[in-house]
Specification:
The protein is built from 30 helices and 8 strands. It has 662 residues and is mainly α. A 3-stranded antiparallel β-sheet has the order 3-4-5, with no helix packed on it. The protein has a 3-stranded mixed β-sheet with strand order 6-8-7. The chain starts with 5 loop residues before the first helix and ends with a helix. The N terminus is likely disordered.
């Protein structure tokens, strides 16, 4: 997962947000000029408050700061974008350094570390920039365009016009620092809870008292639990029994029946089927977590509610997430998901999996991993290789130029990119951290055990490496700073998937490409994550319908939504009525509404894979990939048109799966 981009987060919070007194303070009627100039003056007037000055002050301000020639406007752009790069870089460095004890595996953090990591270094930026008038200067000369306008006008815009429009997204309205800080604090608390939510697998017992997982295996929920379940599709001892036990553990987590003391604690043995616990061989009674998981969701909702009060144009977290950040409406996203979930192809691929497994499907088969070539390789074998190659973070760092050359990058560019990536051991499952300015590196975080990087950590590292390559390329090689990055987090997830599906290739185990097996694997992954994403979306709709809900009420609602989605779209394929499995995803807790980025990212990934499959060589593949990166942060649909010549859609993969099944 890529951490929430600081720049995009600032934009998402600022767009459409203001709680200041709305009564008119100044008028823009005095001004006569071009349509663009009138837009800038009008937007400035709508945000000008009594504290900013009188009508005369406003008119003098417009006269002084309006750039009336293309040359003057470009000069302003260059200076403001340079200032933003400095601001964002310094804020990013503060966030990274204050968060190190809580996100990196560098000793046990204390309460003071969690307090410091929740500090939002950028919380006062909006306040400060309006106070010194830089925000007004930006709005005056680079007015904001709505998403609808960008989609309509964007195809005719030059690169410079796109850059100006993205600068116009930065200061659209005014949010107080205290509100931004409260949102950051609530998210940090949820992230800290998730990052330390490990299940000690060697202390899980069957009902007969047998231990089927190795001593010392500690798996983070949900990511590592899911990955272990996937690994058990290979020919390993107790494979089915392990999968069933992990499924039961997941059920106990989402229902909050799990004993609180067994989380991240090897002092107790736990039989998840009967929910009994033992300490030093003697049975003990332990209280459940009850509602801790859902209290973090409630706390974040309350923080967002306060932000909502300042956002009349985008008055809910749902609108800000989809129309503001993802730049695709939630209704459009939901329709895309349901189109695939209700397709005949899903049922037929499910039947294919049933035939391959030689048994009736179970709910956890949403993570069926048999389409990948590595699924027939025991994970212990892969782990032995990754530990040998990567005993520590520095070993992975040293190997990055080779990894890029394997993907077709020329030696010079491979070294250039690798030199701007730092590798660090993560406390949680792993993530990539953005470089916000061309003086700092991107950061790759993954779990690295005392014995080296196991295969799960390696697979995550390759995913995050994909993020890092995109981050460095579309920042250091971008033509306008305000265009650095990609349109949204879904797009950067697609870029990470491109690398992750080639993890065995990067280990020297043959060339991985978009063949029929890879297409079916991507399709089945879409099916799974679309269901999870709908649960996330429906949960937040429910929260806005029940703003006073307690953690216990939210728990019941989440389980009800998970069962509802399951029964509609998954029970017909996988069986078991009322399975709550879709509520297990950790991002529902630490990054609400992030999940829809994954299936949208899968759609983008597949379309790009189809496009890149036409490349005649590795070098051509890498060159085309870099061309796509360097488009920068256009709107998603404009970016996709430039990348592959078509909009974001599920139809290409549905068509491909239909061809394969025939």
């Amino acid at each position: 997962m890529k951490k929430l981009i600081v720049f995009l987060a600032i934009v998402a919070v600022m767009v459409g947000c203001s709680k200041q007194d709305k009564s008119p303070v100044v008028s823009s009627d005095f001004f006569q000029g071009s349509a663009l100039e009138l837009r800038g003056v009008g937007q400035c007037a709508s945000l000008w408050r009594a504290v900013d000055g009188t009508q005369a002050d406003f008119e003098a301000f417009v006269k002084q700061w309006l750039a009336t020639t293309p040359e003057a406007r470009r000069t302003l752009y260059d200076k403001i974008s340079r200032a933003l790069e400095i601001f964002y870089t310094q804020q990013n460095q503060l966030t990274i350094e204050l968060g190190r004890p809580t996100v990196l595996a560098e000793g046990e953090p204390g309460e003071i570390d969690y307090l410091l990591s929740s500090y939002d270094a950028g919380a006062h930026l909006s306040d400060d920039m309006f106070a010194n008038k830089l925000a007004f200067i930006t709005i005056l000369n680079f007015p904001h365009f709505t998403l609808e306008e960008k989609n309509a006008l964007g195809p005719q815009w030059s690169r410079e016009q796109w850059a100006y429009a993205r600068l116009g997204d930065v200061f659209t309205e005014r949010v107080p620092a205290s509100v931004s800080q409260a949102v950051t604090a609530a998210r940090s608390a949820g992230e800290a809870y998730i990052d330390t939510y490990n299940i000690e697998m060697g202390h899980l017992l069957t009902e007969s008292g047998e231990r089927i997982f190795p001593e010392g295996m500690s798996l983070l929920s949900h990511w590592n639990l899911r990955d272990e379940l996937k690994a058990d599709y290979a020919d390993v001892p107790h494979a089915r029994e392990k999968q069933e036990m992990i499924y039961k553990v997941m059920e106990r987590i989402v229902t909050q029946e799990i004993p609180a003391a067994v989380v991240n604690n090897p002092a107790y043995d736990w039989a998840p089927y009967s929910n009994r616990t033992w300490k030093d061989g003697r049975e003990v009674s332990l209280p459940s977590e009850k509602d801790v998981r859902y209290s973090h969701m409630v706390n974040q909702f309350h923080a967002f509610q306060e932000l909502d009060r300042w956002c009349p144009a985008m008055p809910t977290a749902i609108v800000r997430n989809f129309e503001g950040s993802l730049e695709i409406s939630d209704a459009e996203v939901e329709a895309l998901f349901i189109r695939l979930l209700t397709s005949e192809q899903v049922k037929r691929v499910g039947e294919l999996i049933r035939q391959r497994l030689g048994r009736e499907l179970r709910p956890y088969d949403i993570w069926y991993d048999g389409f990948k070539s590595r699924s027939v390789i025991p994970e212990d074998e892969l782990t032995a290789e990754t530990r040998r190659r990567y005993p520590d973070a520095e070993a992975f760092k040293r190997d990055m130029p080779r990894l890029l050359r394997n993907m077709g990058f020329d030696a010079a560019e491979a070294q250039f990119v690798a030199d701007r990536i730092v590798v660090e051991g993560a406390r949680g499952s792993g993530h990539a951290w953005e470089c916000m300015g061309r003086t700092e590196p991107a950061r790759l975080r993954t779990r690295i055990g005392a014995d080296g990087m196991d295969y799960k950590g390696y697979n995550i590292a390759v995913h995050e490496f994909g993020h890092n390559v995109e981050m460095v390329t579309d920042l250091y090689h971008i033509d306008y700073y305000t265009l650095f990055g990609v349109p949204n987090t879904a797009t950067t997830e697609a870029m990470a998937f491109l690398f992750q599906v080639r993890d065995l290739q990067l280990l020297g185990r043959g060339k991985q490409k978009l063949d029929d097996a890879a297409t079916l694997d991507i399709f089945w992954g879409m099916y799974e994550i679309m269901g999870v994403s709908l649960v996330d979306m429906y949960t937040w709709r429910w929260l806005y319908e029940h703003p006073g809900a307690t953690a216990a009420q939210l728990r019941d609602a989440v389980l009800a939504k998970a069962k509802e989605v399951w029964n509609l779209y998954f029970e017909p394929v996988l069986g078991e009525h009322d399975s709550p499995l879709l509520a297990i995803y950790s991002h529902m807790i630490d990054y609400p509404l992030y999940l829809p980025n994954y299936p949208v990212g899968h759609m983008i990934h597949y379309q790009i894979e189809e496009h890149l499959a036409k490349c005649g060589s590795d070098a051509e593949f890498a060159a085309e990939l870099q061309r796509i990166y360097r488009q920068g942060r256009l709107t998603p649909q404009a970016w996709m048109q430039g990348a592959v010549g078509a909009p974001i859609s599920v139809e290409p993969i549905l068509t491909a799966v239909e061809r394969i099944l025939k």
